Description:
Blueprint lengths: L23 H7 L16 H7 L6 E6 L10 H13 L4 E6 L10 H7 L4 E4 L9 H8 L10 H5 L3 H7 L2 H9 L2 E8 L5 E4 L6 H4 L3 E4 L2 H9 L3 E4 L5 H6 L5 E4 L1 H7 L7 E3 L11 E6 H4 L4 H9 L1 H26 L3 E3 L3 H20 L6 H21 L11 H4 L8 H12 L6
Parallel strand pairs: 1-2, 6-7, 6-8, 9-11
Antiparallel strand pairs: 3-10, 4-10, 5-8, 5-9
Helix pairs in contact: 3-15, 7-17, 10-16, 12-15, 15-19, 16-17
Amino acid sequence: xxxxxxxxxxxxxxxxxxxxxxxxxxxxxxxxxxxxxxxxxxxxxxxxxxxxxxxxxxxxxxxxxxxxxxxxxxxxxxxxxxxxxxxxxxxxxxxxxxxxxxxxxxxxxxxxxxxxxxxxxxxxxxxxxxxxxxxxxxxxxxxxxxxxxxxxxxxxxxxxxxxxxxxxxxxxxxxxxxxxxxxxxxxxxxxxxxxxxxxxxxxxxxxxxxxxxxxxxxxxxxxxxxxxxxxxxxxxxxxxxxxxxxxxxxxxxxxxxxxxxxxxxxxxxxxxxxxxxxxxxxxxxxxxxxxxxxxxxxxxxxxxxxxxxxxxxxxxxxxxxxxxxxxxxxxxxxxxxxxxxxxxxxxxxxxxxxxxxxxxxxxxxxxxxxxxxxxxxxxxxxxxxxxxxxxxxxxxxxxxxxxxxxxxxxxxxxxxxxxxxxxxxx
Length: 426
């Protein structure tokens, strides 16, 4: 029953714990040191306690950007997070926000963080696998997540962050790039196969030019008989409209952001055969982070629940509604693969996992693969144990979903406690 989705966890969640002393190794965990120093606050501090702690902090203005136009559903999590920081700091932290990636396009956001154009941004390491080999390998394992609209959205935004923070290879990559990971991995929902005409079987997909991101997605497209092509999401509408590509592997959120759902209304999202994701990560410029007083760092950390939560409730789910509505109004629908295509994708996914296991992206790739699967399985159990469930498929999601009815705070509390608390600046 949907009512079960609002039930809190039966066992009380523990208060977020403070980490101990921050030596060099701990700095690598949080992505940077605290050169500015100053006193902090206890984890779980109220807004009033934070505002009191900011009384002697000089005003700070930071440069950032949103991937979407102001007020867009797709940028809701960014705007809500920044607004919370401003409010909780009593206005001492403010932002110059550039909308629609006006400062730097997706593949160059990490450059902008290094050269000072941005202080905080949403990076896409999957666009630069040679610079982030371990991160890219971890991201490309995303198809092991549950692919459903509710449970999958929660689980897939939990376990990758746990694995990321625990992996020294990945953390070192970001540190070498001058980045401080805040939310290392957040996705826009499960990826689907968006096409201009129905393509659910191998015969139908054969030869279809398909936009894909990353080596894993390209391999998956080839396994289905398609021809992969690298097309940034900002160019997908024109590419589909002009017939440069027939399909694209994208999420419902990207289909709405890119405005191409009416050009590709025939969608496949199969719960038994998932595509690799191309998620982003939110990061600070390390040079900026190390100048921030401790209490400022802690506030950015403690309000990550806003960023993660809004990403799901105000971006993934509303965009899933819009995608389902848009597909149907354009004469399409959101379906599953025919059995032959499903089996081909499942076989390719198994091979991709084995390639990562035997590869050299990590110091111990086999252990990382095993750990990722264990984390994914555990977070699936955690999410379902909190009472979350999928009552309908994607095609019916637009008529089933009611904004605000699914309370994900118990999930956020658990995620912050189990994953982010150990890396809180102190």
